[in-house]
Amino acid sequence: MSNLVDHAKRELELLLGGKDDEMQKKVNEDILQLVEVFAKQGHSGMSAEYTISILTRLLKFRPIKPLTGEPDEWGTEVSENQNKRYTALFKQSDGMVVDVNSLAWTDDDGKTWFRRGGTNKFPKVEFPYTPPTHPTRRIYLSSDGKKILRIVDGGTR
């Protein structure tokens, strides 16, 4: 067994925390299967990072190559103003394009995150555009959701 699989087993066990959580057990099994396949492929440091980078983008429904904003990228079953390659991108009536995944909101100090309605709250997208894999800005609200307590740029959840 590889060091990666051993590491994954130890870390995934910590998610259970000694509890008999059937859902977490199933998720752990699924993740372990993916780790085992990755480990069998025998990636070195460089190919592993490259593979993980592309796989992360694909699993998060992000495009691998930059979006162009060209007309053939637009129009889905939901909206003709939605990007086909990255459905969190919307073109507004004034032509401005926004990424609704670029902001994450929380009203419980980061325990849970949500999207807030209204595309006018999001920064304008410039093309070519490569969507990030995590929100670029996190907004912490008071528990009633009425007051912004702090804004954090960048980082990961």
TrEMBL record:
A Pfam family it matches: Tad3
InterPro entries: Tad3 (IPR057383)
Domain of life: Bacteria
Designated name of the protein: Uncharacterized protein
